[in-house]
Alpha-1,4 glucan phosphorylase
Amino acid sequence: MSVSQFSAMSTTRSSSEAFVQYSSLSRFIEFGSRNRRSKKLLLTRTLNFRPLTTTSFCVKNVSSEPKANPNVKEPVVEEEASGSLNPYAPDAASITSSIKYHAEFTPSYSPDKFELPKAFFATAQSVRDTLIINWNSTYEYYERLNVKQAYYLSMEFLQGRALLNAIGNLGLTGAYAEALSKLGHSLENVAYKEPDAALGNGGLGRLASCFLDSLATLNYPAWGYGLRYKYGLFKQRITKDGQEEVAEDWLELGNPWEMVRNDVSYPVKFFGKVVSGSDGKKHWIGGEDIKAVAYDVPIPGYKTKTTINLRLWSTKVPSEDFDLSAFNAGDHTKAAEALSNAEKICYILYPGDESVEGKILRLKQQYTLCSASLQDIIARFERRSGANINWEEFPEKVAVQMNDTHPTLCIPELMRVLVDLKGLSWKEAWNITQRTVAYTNHTVLPEALEKWSFELMQKLLPRHVEIIEMIDEELINTIVLEYGTADPDLLEKKLKAMRILENFDLPATLADLFVKPKESNVVVRDDELETSEDDVESVDGEPQVEKEDTQEEEKIVEAIPKPPKLVRMANLCIVGGHAVNGVAEIHSEIVKNEVFNEFYKLWPEKFQNKTNGVTPRRWIRFCNPDLSKIITNWLRTEDWVTNTEKLAELRKFADNEDLQAQFRAAKRNNKMKVVSLIKEKTGYSVSPDALFDTQVKRIHEYKRQLLNILGIVYRYKKMKEMTAAERKAKYVPRVCIFGGKAFATYVQAKRIVKFITDVAATVNHDPDIGDLLKVVFVPDYNVSVAELLIPASELSEHISTAGMEASGTSNMKFAMNGCILIGTLDGANVEIREEVGDDNFFLFGARAHEIAGLRKERAEGKFVPDPCFEEVKKFVRTGVFGPYNYDELMGSLEGDEGFGRADYFLVGKDFPSYLECQEKVDEAYRDQKKWTRMSILNTAGSYKFSSDRTIHEYAREIWNIKPVELP
């Protein structure tokens, strides 16, 4: 659209009038604390707000609408009107003026065109105006009431696109659709121009974002804290060589949602040294100083005025740290060294840590998050407390939740601030810290339980290491007090398992308890006990052992390297906090009985379960409008969006043929969107009539994408051995969809990606197979892709080795959208199966309690692989999938022991069970009535897995906070 066409658009106000109105709005925002009646009047005059008394215009889906249920009287679904945030909301005409204003006066593009990218920015800035109003009101109200507030610290927040989510939560979808239509664009096309925020990678980050949505929707006073990554993890490209990583470009054109707070910045220090002052206090001096600057992203609740904050930290240095003399002398690199060191902290999510520099950078990231966030939290506490600051009240006003071990440094940092800067005693500070901080564990994998080099941490954070040493010493005293010294072996076992400092000598007071007599490893016969004078030398009359033998022994002792000294972050989390929770029932039991069993025996009251949940707003209401309308019509209410327990009522309609027909129609509409997505992203054409079988998640050996693709290879091999008629009779047509990123340095995961794409290239071009089997790897999987794939999927693979997945959240999203799961009894699969019913979940594989025994059996050489497993590996090695050498990949599934061998994740053990289960899938899919019934029951059974329920549990049982609804 040209600028002349854009300007000629019919609106209720001119641009100059809009400018005046928005100037008034700016004053309204700036002086938002004035009386509410005046604010409301100004808002009404400024933006032509009108009461929400009628149904707003909504954009209809381009797909055909499902048939209405003749047996149920359908209500008028007033999606916008029923959710007004206050008695006033902007109408389409006001929104049109608002968008035009931002296109002209806050431009990110040249003024001569109003094309889609510019339309997106102007629309987002228009939405942000409303969010700022609600954000300011929320913040002001929390300040005035001095409420207890929860702070959620996470290295990841995987938000996805924000536009549709924001206007949906505000109840303005119809109004914005109408406004954009007047301006020559569709809401869908405008929203598509928004890049996904590159602030996370997997379930950890998506969970954090779901939690923020629920916190705002439920009116809990809470904020999120994270880092503002410039390049995210990486953008994934799929080439002939497999996965290729390039820098993410999400910030290149700017981020219309964020608000930089130049007045909110805090110093963060690295390196230096610790000295004792004349006052007896410790002072951390010297080193490298940077500044963390706040960028705020408003998070709106659904149909509530509450808008909470995600505060992201960006790092820089003051301008005086730029060495102008060096620059003018031609040493440009040295001149910008301080700036570069600061900025790179927020360049990449999870920088590679194979090098020392990479490890230092990761630790800098974690400390920056903790230090800046705690300084901000403490400053807020002091401001709200006024002149009478009582630090004992800090845990009554502040709850800090550490999302996994990345924010562990909150514990020594809070201790440092309280003791060194605020003058509290160690005992006072330790009591406050333990009552404030809590820890969510997300893994049972040993390699994912963070351990940092003591030497590296001592170099980077010298004062924190001193504090950690003192915490470790206090823990030792607690363990000794609990178990006594009568049984040194038991005490040694406890200390080895529980200490924060690993591979450290015990304090001198305890060392004598564990001194064991030296045992000779030389067997001496009785007849050798008599020694002649020729065999020994005498020094001062004492016989001496021959020197050559002694020197040889010393050489042997010196050849054994000492294990590195480490700081165990998970142990520090448990010791320093008041609550530890797992994220699924089976995971929490493993945490208590295996991973942290010694801690559980000592402090059973600390350990809890908080099964993960996902927001039903993004994961049904907004991403699957067809299904949402069906649910609302059959339940005769839209309350299920915030009260998912109502979804269970769908069970009574599961056999209704009209509901089943509507479910199938909605699923097909969603599948058609994915057919277009696959064609766009990969070039492959797939049939919407095939079963859509999906596995999308991080590429990791324990998640067993390798099991899935080997099952597909076996299916392909068997198809090739049949006639066309036999193939058609035996197999249901399938489209097998993969997506996910392999970490850049994870060689085996990248081999799996390469293998999947090679299998796809062979199978998809085989004319004998046609539409009976297609394999697709969707590149650069993210939230926006998930919002298309999940509603369209009919079977979803959650096939991790039992006992290794903490929870999973994608399994919940798939179940909510009527997708049937195939999986092991792992993570939240266990609870999902209980809710949806055994008959509506395809179960296979070994159980969690069997895994250790199966690995032991393998190590002892007792495992006998199934012939079908040997057959499929042999087939891969024939080169049918191209010239790439897959010996290393197949070799990892062979042998009885060794690094990268012995099939640690039990692919071979579960392979025959998996194939048998897939045959049951084919059988069930042929009976579409049965399959649709299972699909409905999965949606009905997903009621338990809303993040709203999870947040209520955190708020009540860990944070002790209550909802605060704005007046």
